[in-house]
Design a protein that fits this description.
The complex is a heterodimer of chains A (197) and B (378).
Chain A lengths: L6 E8 L4 H15 L3 E6 L9 E9 L11 E6 L2 H7 L3 E10 L11 E4 L1 H9 L5 H13 L4 H11 L2 H19 L19
Parallel strand pairs in A: 1-4, 4-5, 5-6
Antiparallel strand pairs in A: 1-3, 2-3
Helix pairs in contact in A: 1-4, 1-5, 3-4, 3-6, 4-6, 5-6
Chain B lengths: L7 E5 H11 L4 E4 L6 H10 L6 E4 L3 H13 L4 E5 L1 H17 L3 E9 L5 E5 L4 H6 L8 E4 L3 H18 L2 E7 H5 L1 E5 L60 H17 L1 H4 L2 E4 L6 E5 L3 H14 L4 E6 L1 E3 L3 H10 L2 E6 L5 H7 L5 E6 L8 H10 L1
Classes of the chains: A alpha/beta (197), B alpha/beta (378).
Amino acid sequence: MMQEDRYELRFGGAGGQGIILAAVIFAEAVGIHEGFHVCQSQSYGPEARGGRSRAEIVISSEPIDYPRVIGMDLFLAMNQAALDAYFADCKPRGILLADATFVSQVPTSRALLLPFTTIARQQLGDALAANMAALGAVGVVCGRVRLASLEKAIARRVPAKFKELNIRALHAGAAAARQLDLAALPPFIDSEEEKEV
Amino acid sequence: MSEKTGQRLLLQGNEAIVEGALAAGCRFFAGYPITPASEIAELMSLRLPALNGTFIQMEDEIASMGAIIGASLAGVKSLTATSGPGFSLMQENLGFACAAEVPCVVVNVMRAGPSTGLSTSPAQGDVMQARWGTHGDHPIIVLAVSSVSDCFDLTIQAFNLSEKYRVPVIVLSDEIVAHTRETVILPEQAAVTVIDRMRPAVPPEWYIPYEDNSRGVPAMADMGSGYRHHVTGLIHDVRGFPTERPEEVDAFIRRLFRKITNGFPEIQLTKTVMLEDAEIAVIAYGAVTRSALRAVRQARGRGIRAGLLQLITLYPFPRKAVEAVLRQCRRVLVPEMNMGQVIREVKRVNVATEIVRHNRVDGQFITPAEIYAHLLAM
C-alpha cells in the first residue's frame, strides 16, 4: 500500500461564480504558504461561462504523480447543477460542502450546507464574494490551511480594490463554518476496500 | 505573477515555459494566439519588453515561424508557441529552419485533432507531425514535457540543444501540463546553464558560413555583423549558395544527420522509475507519464514488479534506453492519447518482447486506473 497523505478537492459551480479563482487562491495558499505539493486544474470548455465550471486541487506532502482528482475528500458545490454533475467522484469518506442558497438536494448525509451567496449578499453587500466565503469554509473544514495563508494568496491574486471585500468574505465564510459540528457528521460506510487508483 | 527566480511559485505549465525561455536567453517571441497555448504569448508580451526583448503578434502562424527564423538569423534566441492547427501552418518554414540550420524553439501545446478538433481537450496526436511534419529528410529534436517543472527545465534544454546543434527544437506539451498549476522552485539565473551558438572566430573575409568541422555544426554569424551570410532553403554549398552537385548535396544532408547523431548521448533524455528489477514496464511520455507513475507504484504495492521509462526526448528516438527495457522486460505497455504513434517507434526497436498498446482518442486524460488494469493483466 502506498503511504501518502494525498488530499483531493473539487470546486463546482456556474461559470462566473469565481470557481477557478477560488481554486487558484486555495492552491497558492496551500502550495506556497503551507509548503505542500499541489496540482490545480480546471475544466476548460468553450461553454464555461454561464455553464458549469469545475476546478480541482490535489495536495500532498510528497511530489504528486497523477495531477487530477481520483476521488474527492472534499467537494464544494456552489449550485445544484454542479453538485449533480460532479458528485459521483466523491470518496465514501469525502465531505460535501454546498451553498445552501442554491442547493436543496444533497446525495449524501456527509453534507455541510452553508448559504454562501446569502452570507455574501447580506454581510458584504455583494453576492459575487460568495466564492471567497466558501473558500473560508473550505479552509476550516479541510484543516490544511491557515486563514492567514488564504489572505496572502488573495492579496496576490485579486485586484487591490477588491482585496478587502474578498478577505472579509473569507472570514465571514470561515466564521459560519466554525459553527458547524464536524464531529456530528455520520460515519462513512466503507463496505468495500476503497479503490486504489 | 511571479517573476523572480529562486523562489517557490505556483505556475501553469505555459507560464513555466515562458520562465524557462527567458532564463535560456530568449529575447524574441512571434506568435498567434491559440488555445491551449495562448498564455505563453500573453505572458511573453508582458515580460519581453521589460527585458529589452521583442514580442510581435503576427497575422498567422506561417508568419510567426518566419519571424522567429529571421530574429534568430540576426542573433537573437527566438520562440514561438502554438497548438495543432497553427503547428500545421508552421511546417513549411520549419523545414526552412532545418535546411538553413537556424536555431529556434517551437512549442506545440497539443490538443485533440485532426483539424480544429477539440480545441480545449488534451491529446498526443502530433508526435509524428513534430518529427515528420515538414517535408524532406531532416533531423529534428523533439522534447516532451510532463510537469510544470519539466516545462521550465526542458525549455531551457530546448534552447541549449537548438543553439549547440543549430537545429529547430520542438517542445511538445499538452493541454493537461499547459493548464495545470503546480508548485515549482525556479533556480536562480546564475544556476541555469545557458549555451549560446558558436559564432565565427575568424575575420569576416575568411568566414565560410556552412563549412564543416569536427562537430558538423558550422559557426553562425549574426546577420548584420559584417559577415557575408547567404541563407536559402535550397540545398547549398559551404558558402550558402544553391548547389545540385551530387557530392555537395550528399555531404550536406549527411552532415545534417551526423551532427545530431554525434550528440545522441546528450540529446536522448529519458528517466527511469523502479526499472532495476522490473519484469513489466510502461513506456510513456508527456502528461500520461503521471498516470503511468501512479499505476506503476500501485502495481508495486501489489507485489508486481513494474517499472516506468519516461521518454523525455522523443526524437531522435532514444533507441538505446528503449532497447534496454525491451531486453529486460517480458511485456511493455505504451499508453498514448492517440491511436498509437510512439508504440511504432518502440516496435521498430523490437527485440521480440511483447508490446501492448493502450490508446485513448476521446479528448480525455488516460487515468492511472486504465494503466493499472493492464499491469494486472500483464
